[in-house]
Each structure stands twice: as structure tokens, then as C-alpha cells.
Amino acid sequence: MRLGELTFGYEETGTGTALVLVHGHPFDRSMWRPQIEHFSRRGWRVIAPDLRGYGESTVVPGKTTLETFARDISGLLDRLGVQSFVLGGLSMGGQIAMEIHRLFPDRVRGLVLADTSAVAETADGKVARHQTADRLLRKGMSHYADEALPKMLSPQNIKTMPDVAAHVASMMKNTSPEGAAAALRGRAERPDYLPELPLVAVPALVIVGSDDEFTPVSDAELIHELIPDARLGVIDGAAHMPNLERPAEFNSLVEQFLERIPAPAATEGRT
Q: Is 270 a residue whose pLDDT tops 50?
């Protein structure tokens, strides 16, 4: 879909209330394949966009902030005729979900925050993100992908789930270095979402892999403590991508959560 001067890839399948899934870095919408298939069969209109700079969406070099990503998704949903939706995101996608809720709280019917962090970027983290961005532009994605894979997935899952490992590695290696670098520079300016979390007035589910090194269980527990009446699910044997490492457990947690979401007064139509 074309929005202004940019083109955005996305997948939309199923009917019913919209469930919007936001991928992490450095991935694309295919990371949600098990969830797209599962929830579209269970009465949800699942929409999974490629963020700018990723997948089939336009690459914009420079810096892409979380607000820019959030406004892109809002614009896409406007074009699709979606006013309100349940919103899920993993890692950077979870931060984008928090930014969408900050900007457009009246549109969000429920929040699923998976393997993400709500705190502002640290001084050391800012330096590291800029250094990584520079390295990606110099050397490309391949070395970065090889380096990151043992943290994205648990080492045990890499051995026992070779198809999943290959999929995750492929997404990382096929990501545009310019797009990934722009996102890293934007995340270096990540704000502190902790003050926003007590203001969340919709059902919320926080999920984390028990072995996540990037955003450990303690990060999830903090988010869970601050969002009123939120639920917390820790998925054993998973690292940073429990939706792919333990899809059945992940989908079950989300499905139980979605049962809490009140039905809309009228189902939104397509445009």
C-alpha cells in the first residue's frame, strides 16, 4: 500500500475485530506467521505490517524514531478503515505499541507486549546503538545476524528447531542495513514509557521468554506491575522470540487474553 511517498508491505487475513501485530528488529512481518494463521482462523482480522525499512516496505535512510513507526501504522490502519484494534508487539514492536498507545489511546482496545522494555535508553545504550548502526552500514547484516541469533533464540532451540533458526537468520540477513541502522538511531532516542503505563485503561498482557537476555523477565515484571490489572506470562524454554520458539504456548496465552476484550459495538468494515 502506498502512503504518501512510501510503500508499505502488509498482510491482512481473517474477519472480525482487528488484531494488529508489530514485528521487532531486524525482522519483518513473517515473524508473526504462526499467529497470523492461528488467530485469523479464530475470528480475528489479523493485520501485520512491514515497518518502514524492513520487509517489503520502503527503506528510508537516516533515523526512524518510534513515533515515526507509530504514525506509519496509524496511517496504514486509516487506509484500511480500522478505527480501533487490539495491538501486539515484540521487542522494538512492543515499544512501538507503547508509542501508538501514547499517541492514540482511544484506538487501542487491548495491548500485548512481548519481550520488550519500557525504560528510556541509557547513555551507554545510545552509544552502542549508534556504533551498531555504523557497523551495519559498513559491513552489512550477515555478521550481525550470526552474532545475534544465539540470543534471539535459545541455543537449545537453535539445535532442535532448525527451521525456526533458519527463518530468523534469514529475516535478519535479508533486512536492509540502511533500514536497520535508521531504526537503531531512532531507538537511541527512546523515551521513558514507565510514566505512561499506569495510564493504560485497556486489558494488557505481558509475555516474556524465560531465557530472554535482551529483555529479561525483570523487564516484563516491571511493565506488568505498572499497568493496572495486566496479566503476565513467562514462557519456559524460550528466549527473545517465544512466538516462534513456543508458538502453541504463546498463542494460548494470547487467546485466553483476547477473551477478556469486550466485543465492539459494531464490526468495522473494510474499505
A: no
Length of the chain: 271
- According to DSSP, the β-strands at 2-3 and 6-7 are antiparallel
Report the alpha-carbon distance of residue 244 to residue 242 in Å, rounded: 5
| Omega prior to 150 cis, within 30 of 0 | no
Question: What is the enclosing helix (H) or strand (E) of 89?
Answer: strand 85-90
For 60, phi and psi rounded to 5 degrees?
-120, 105
Q: CA dist 256 to 112, 128, 145, 227, 248, Å?
A: 12, 38, 33, 18, 12
d(CA 77, CA 105): 14
The mean pLDDT value of the chain amounts to 96
CB-CB contact of 214 with 240 (8 Å) = yes
How do the domains of the chain map onto residue ranges? 2-120+191-258
Above 50 in pLDDT, residue 258?
yes
| E-strand stretches of 105-203 | 108-114
| Contact criterion met (CB below 8 Å) for 39 and 66 | no
Compute CA 253 distance to the chain's CA centroid, rounded to the nearest angstrom. 16
CA gap 37, 269 in Å, rounded: 21
pLDDT digits (tens, 9 = 90+) for 155-211: 999 999 999 999 999 999 999 999 999 999 999 999 999 999 999 999 999 999 999
68-91 per-position pLDDT tens digit: 999 999 999 999 999 999 999 999
Predicted structure pTM score: 0.96
**Fold entry, domain 2-120+191-258:** Rossmann fold (3.40.50)
